Amino acid sequence: MAKQKGFSLIELLIVVTVILIIAAIAIPSLMRSKMRANEADAVASLRVLHTAAVTYSTAYPDLGYPPSLASMGGANPCTASSTQACLIDGTLSTGAKSGYAFAWTGDGLVPSFSFTSTATPQSVGVSGQNMFCSDQTGVIRYDTTGTNCTATSSVLN
Does residue 92 form part of some domain? Predict the structure, then answer.
């Protein structure tokens, strides 16, 4: 009887099973890492928004803080004005970045003395778990349910 070359069906099934076990262990870790990266980017973006708001209020003292995210952004090439200050990138000024939706709420006064900015996961548990918020004080707060961050939420360390 001649010696056969190649692998038996059992050997191939064992290899596929081992690969699937490794994937089952690795994929949840990858997803958690992606969520953490999105959350870190959301916090960094809130800090950028706060810095841009302070810069805007310095550049346009008669208006105070900006009325919207769009007023801090601008089309490329950008010429700075009070309606498009060119302080944040175009992606962030649209209100969506890295799995988070960003919202900006001014106080409606002219000049504006306060604002609230929020970063909400677009899909809680998938793109991020925590919701983040900040106001004119620059303190970043979070809510672990991903849906209700307020001025009384826990402070991010």
Answer: yes
Q: Contacts for 47-51 with beta carbons within 8 Å, 24 or more apart?
A: 47/134, 47/140, 48/88, 48/92, 49/88, 49/92, 49/102, 49/104, 49/117, 49/134, 50/117, 50/134, 50/138
Position 4 in a domain? no
* HSE value, Cβ hemisphere, 13 Å, CA-based, for 82: 13
pLDDT tens digits, residue range 6-64? 888 999 999 999 999 999 999 999 999 999 999 999 999 999 999 999 999 999 999 99
Residue closest to 106 by CA, chosen among 39, 45, 55, 57: 57
User: Residue 1: inside a domain, yes or no?
Assistant: no
| Beta strands 140-143 and 115-121, pairing class | unpaired
Helix runs in the chain, H state only: 9-59, 90-94
Q: d(Cα 103, Cα 96) in Å, to the nearest integer? A: 9
Domain encompassing residue 88 = 9-155
Task: Give the total number of structural domains in the chain.
Answer: 1
Is residue 2 domain-resident?
Answer: no
Q: What is the pTM of this model?
A: 0.84
Within 8 A by CB and 6+ apart from 71, the residues are 56, 82, 83, 84, 85
